[in-house]
């Protein structure tokens, strides 16, 4: 065998045995690395709106009892991860009696399950809408574990994320780089064993609940 053939085979062997390195999507906003974002109302009102649409009744509600943080990896957006928690006691539909039923044992059972949690595991289908030295905007699909009523289910949710680098203008509101996340998705009650009073789900309470959320955070924390 010729020397050139031996060298070619050796190079091929090294290439095949070497691990493949996948590079993630970069968010070129004039900064690099991981940004630890903590939710804070100093940047904007963290708010979730929920809607139950059923043939006999439409119920609208909100919750502002939201806390959490996430790591935005500017060098690998796919690796973004974190945890958002919702205080069930803070959920409000405008009627005290209805709220009491919603948080009772037959529904969300707030005493046993005081929080609803979404654990973000990563992003996919990332589209860079804008990116410059001031910040940028992306659209993506978030994948994570949604935990409610003692049940954990994987849920994918489309998100829009805006990142704003700290400037003299942003400092007037709060310190640090800012992030805003908007998302909308549905939660099926049966997936989380929320059965409610017999005959109510599907007539007065929707089988699925529509969720619209705005999350605001800063690298400076709360």
What's the helix and strand layout?
Elements: H1 3-17, E1 34-39, E2 47-53, E3 58-63, E4 66-73, E5 81-87, H2 96-102, E6 115-132, E7 135-148, E8 151-164, H3 168-171, E9 178-188, E10 208-218
Antiparallel strand pairs: 1-4, 1-10, 2-3, 2-10, 4-5, 5-6, 6-7, 7-8, 8-9, 9-10
Structural summary, described in words:
This protein is mainly beta and 222 residues long. Strands 1-4-5-6-7-8-9-10 form an eight-stranded antiparallel beta barrel. It has helices at residues 3-17, 96-102, 168-171, and strands at residues 34-39, 47-53, 58-63, 66-73, 81-87, 115-132, 135-148, 151-164, 178-188, 208-218. It has a single domain, classed as Lipid/polyisoprenoid-binding, YceI-like (Lipocalin). The longest helix is centred in the first third of the chain and has 15 residues, at 3-17. The chain is built from three helices and ten strands. 12% of the residues lie in helices and 46% in strands.
**Reading side by side through the largest sheet, how are the strands ordered?**
1-4-5-6-7-8-9-10
CATH fold descriptor: Lipocalin
For the largest beta-sheet, the strand count, sense and barrel status come to: 8 strands, antiparallel, barrel
Kindly report the name of the CATH homologous superfamily: Lipid/polyisoprenoid-binding, YceI-like
Number of domain modules:
1
Tally the helices. 3
The geometry reads as elongated
CATH-defined architecture: Beta Barrel
Can you give the mean pLDDT? 92
Taken as a percent bin, the fraction of beta residues is: over 45%
Radius of gyration: 23 Å
Q: List unreliable stretches of 5+ residues.
A: 17-21
Q: Sketch the topology as an H/E string, one letter per element.
A: HEEEEEHEEEHEE
User: Which CATH C-level class is it?
Assistant: Mainly Beta
What is the helical fraction, as a range of percent?
Answer: 10-25%
Ends distance? 69 Å
Q: Find the count of extended strands (DSSP E, 2+ residues).
A: 10
């Amino acid at each position: 065998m010729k020397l050139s053939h031996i060298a070619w085979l050796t190079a091929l062997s090294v290439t095949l045995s070497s691990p493949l390195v996948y590079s993630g999507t970069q968010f070129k906003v004039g900064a690099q690395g991981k940004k630890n974002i903590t939710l804070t109302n100093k940047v904007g009102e963290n708010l979730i709106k929920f809607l139950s649409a059923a043939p006999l009744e439409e119920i609208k509600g909100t919750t502002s009892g939201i806390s959490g943080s996430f790591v935005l990896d500017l060098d690998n957006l796919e690796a973004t991860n974190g945890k958002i928690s919702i205080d069930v006691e803070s959920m409000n539909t405008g009627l005290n009696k209805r709220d009491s039923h919603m948080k009772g044992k037959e529904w969300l059972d707030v005493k046993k399950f005081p929080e609803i949690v979404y654990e973000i595991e990563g992003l996919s289908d990332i589209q860079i809408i804008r990116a410059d030295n001031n910040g940028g905007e992306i659209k993506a699909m978030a994948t994570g574990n949604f935990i409610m009523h003692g049940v954990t289910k994987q849920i994918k949710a489309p998100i829009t994320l805006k990142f704003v680098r700290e400037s003299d203008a942003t400092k007037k509101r709060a310190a640090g780089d800012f992030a805003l996340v908007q998302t909308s998705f549905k939660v099926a009650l049966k997936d989380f064993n929320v059965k409610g009073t017999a005959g109510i789900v599907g007539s007065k309470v929707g089988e699925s609940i529509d969720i619209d959320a705005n999350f605001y955070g800063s690298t400076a924390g709360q």
